[in-house]
Amino acid sequence: MAVPPPPPFPAAPPMAAEPSKPALRAELRAVRDAFVLDLAPGERARLEALAADHLMRVAGGARSIAFYVAMGSEMGCAAAIAATAARGIAVALPHVESRSAPMRFLRWTPGDPLETGWRGLSQPAAESAGIDPDLIVAPLLGFDSALNRIGQGAGFYDRAFAALPDARRIGWGWSIQQRPAIGCDPWDVPLDAVVTEAGVIEGNSA
Ligand SMILES: Nc1nc2c(c(=O)[nH]1)N(C=O)[C@@H](CNc1ccc(C(=O)N[C@@H](CCC(=O)O)C(=O)O)cc1)CN2
Ligand SMILES: Nc1ncnc2c1ncn2[C@@H]1O[C@H](COP(=O)(O)OP(=O)(O)OP(=O)(O)O)[C@@H](O)[C@H]1O
């Protein structure tokens, strides 16, 4: 009597992305590092200022915007923060205490001190006023034209988007971080737009 062959093992994970998220993150980090390393002196600041101009065109009506302090090869927010503050719009920055605690957005004005916190993050003093921003500028490792994003993988922004459903979600990154498709998980909340040095990618403009 024929014995049926055993089922293939290990079974494929139910939502296996192609490639795996950790592999995609490593690739995107390497591409982003190489892109920034190749920029001529002054070019990075020029491109970040272009992104700031694009953001100001789409930020209409926001009374408060959350940015972040860029690390490594992330597209920086300094020009956009300066433009935001110059328009009298409140600036907030993320504050992380631990991997498990929700990230908070704290009021910050250019010139205020920044403290080194969890994993070397530069962030406002823990006792700064918390705000619920109208618009959240989120760091990206990668994004696609359907406005899915992939971040560092700790889920801080996914959790913040779930907690602040009325805030506009704008991804912020270099145009070379775009991929044909970023596999998304059930908890991933899509962005409303992505701003790069090259322009704005909006949901209904694709
Ligand atoms: N500039 C910046 N600020 C941010 C974020 C971000 O992505 N960029 N965040 C977005 O969520 C939050 C912090 N999230 C983080 C999530 C993971 C790690 C982390 O695991 N870092 C590794 C090094 C990773 C690497 O090699 O690049 C470590 O410290 O070991 C750090 C911050 C809030 N502030
Ligand atoms: N709304 C949520 N509530 C609780 N946990 C969440 C929520 N959203 C995501 N997470 C958790 O966060 C973790 C990381 O998610 P994911 O791999 O999508 O990170 P990411 O989007 O790349 O990172 P980040 O949002 O920090 O930039 C997952 O383990 C997930 O369970």
TrEMBL record:
It catalyses: (6S)-5-formyl-5,6,7,8-tetrahydrofolate + ATP = (6R)-5,10-methenyltetrahydrofolate + ADP + phosphate. Residues 1-13 have a biased composition (Pro residues). The keyword ATP-binding applies. Belongs to the 5-formyltetrahydrofolate cyclo-ligase family. Pfam families: 5-FTHF_cyc-lig. It is an enzyme of class 6 (ligase). It comes from the Bacteria. This is 5-formyltetrahydrofolate cyclo-ligase.
